[in-house]
Specification:
Elements lengths: L1 H15 L11 E5 L8 E5 L2 H8 L4 E5 L24
Antiparallel strand pairs: 1-2, 1-3
Length: 88
């Protein structure tokens, strides 16, 4: 009985573990002005407007994220072209 409870506990614990982490993938980065060689960067913005709002009152600028990879969209559907040849 103890083994069954222990096994059930392991299954529950494994289900609670987070899945593999994925990096944020957003197209805009806020570059904060930090004065004497300081500052930071946050590449977590979907739009330029979101990025600018985050910088409001703090100084800095927004750049496009050079590491941004857009999500895969639907694949294009290609029609096969069949040629019909007539026999003379």
């Amino acid at each position: 009985m103890k083994a069954l409870i222990f096994a059930a506990g392991l299954v529950a614990a494994a289900g609670a573990l987070p899945s593999s982490a994925q990096a944020q993938n957003y197209p805009w980065c806020a570059v904060y002005g930090g004065g004497r060689g300081g500052g930071g960067q946050n590449c977590g913005f979907s739009t330029f407007e979101q990025c600018m709002a985050a910088l409001s009152g703090q100084g800095g600028f927004c750049n496009r994220n050079t590491q941004f990879v857009p999500p895969a969209g639907p694949r294009a559907h290609y029609r096969r072209h069949h040629r019909h040849y007539s026999e003379d």
